[in-house]
Amino acid sequence: MLRFLLAFMLLVAPAAAQSGAWVTTGHAESRLIAEKTAAVPGETLWVALDQKLEEGWHVYWRNPGDSGLPLELSWTLPAGFEAGDIGYPLPHRLPLGPLMNFGHEGRPLFLVPITVPADAVTGRTLRFEVFAEWLICLDVCIPESADLSLAIAVSDQAEDAGALAAMIREARSALPRDLDLNARFADRDGEIVLALEDAPAGDAYLFPNESGLIEPAAPQPSYRSGDALVFNLVPALNYRATPPDIIKGVMVLSMEGQEVGVTFEAQRSDDVLALANAPSAVTDESGSNLLLIFAFALLGGVVLNAMPCVFPIVFLKAAGITQLAGADRAAVQKDAYAYTAGVLITFAAMATLLLVLRGFGAELGWGFHLQSPIAVGLFAVIVFLIGLNLAGLFEIGTSVQGTGQGLTQKKGVAGSFFTGLLAVLVAAPCIGPFLGLPIGFALSAPPLAAIAVFLALGLGLALPYLLLAAAPQVAQLLPKPGAWMVRVKQLFSFAMFGTVVWLTWVVSLQAGPQGVLVLGISLVAASMAAWLYGLAQEKGGHGPLRATAVIGVVAAVAPLLTLSAQPAAAVAASSEKVAYDEALLAEYRSAGTPVFIDFTAAWCVTCQYNKRVVLDTEPIKELFQKTGTVFMVADLTNPDPIITAAIERQGRSGVPLYLYYNGDADPEILPQILTTERVAQTLEHPG
Q: 436 with 299: CB under 8 angstroms?
């Protein structure tokens, strides 16, 4: 019996030695395995990090995409042994909201070639040790690590290690192939044209080795031009800042139900433009990612109606809907169509202006108009006049005495169009849920594609009111016309006056106390003009009073043209906050100090909501102190090209944006609408 046990141990020992013990971390099991039963002097031994990931969780490829961290291996090997670069499995696209990450799920195998020195002494058993670190994510990301080891004998001969060898051979055969493709690229109209000659046929997607070169979530329309496969790619911020001479990466092709990887190394060459078709960001029919961008833009536009920044216009539109009580189908449809036209035309005009300004080199993002105190002041006067109108000081198109009857009869097409225009001006500063990807894509896409995306966003913003045109019976659910309509209008005026208070505060930050004084004078002049207009209506359209009212409006607007932005004040509200400084941020990161960055602006209502409800509350302040996290504020109230560039590096185009840095790791991007629980989870359990 003893002989049998000894023989059995000798039989299984060589195979067992090729596998290290499983180490269980939070959401993964990991071990080291070897392809051969021994390390042969002068040869290469393939080993692998074998992982079993919890269902639904993923780890990252060498280029993680929009967020994440690649695997890091720190080896401790016997003298003379050397570990090569990691051989990653083929990456997969892992969408996360508007972001796109590149990584692996299930059972990834990460290959590493170990060079065995020619003078390695045979007959010994050595130990390979590695400290492995990775980031594993589901809806949250958690850094994990493990100390792994593998005992391996040194021998003149080695055999395959059974099933382990089969696993490693299969993984090696799946590594990207080097077909020595003639790959070239060039810039054209804000996009990258990259061509691979003699590329195999099949649906293809490019994964660049380096992050920041190609937008991960952007579509990659491709087409055949002669023997070449040509891609139209959206450049990322690193590319735009310093265009490279070489782009290396992996092309993954779907061929007959299987995925095949091919390496490429594209050289910059303008000759490639001869192969390129016209820009196809809009017309490409195979770009499913483009459909996703339009879907996000449409959905994001709908969600904008529930964002705090659009609440004033929601109240204004609600006041307009009350006027539809008792109206016929044609009137309801006309109102909805007029509002939609106002939204779409304004979106197209603003998008065109923004693209033109960016084309001339201006570092501007979406919502740029509210960085001007003149625009904010004009906006405040307009909203103030709307509030006075709703309160009943004057009426548009009817007399004060006939208000009740006028409200039931007035078609309000011009008013609905103007409300749509105003909705866009208010909503523009908001980068709400689902809008990071489409707006980021639009600001780097060809002009027609960009405007198409903004029109999809506008259609989403107007969609709830367009439904009235399809189902006008909804308006019929309102009570019958009567005095209640006047009271509702008067009630909604307070939402307008509250907006004026907010805009006055914005001007105070942009133009200082002098700016508030100028705006106050303008508001007084505007109220006088409104009163005179109301008197003219009472007197049956008195000409001199109307003319005086017009002069009053001019007097209200004229002082605003003198406003100018002052240098942004230092962050002095609390010694616990520091102003955004990229050099200081780099110092904190190199020292391993966690940093939370609040990209904000006074004109961003969502930012102020998050500040009051979450960031400036005592529990969160205490957590910042407890965790030693630096609270950095990047204030975009006034134009700042450095902060604008920092936002675009994250694939975003406006505020709010919240980043959490934990040392040298890529930042974690928090949602636009914060909760105490979400911020606390980030600060206490960084990932």
A: no
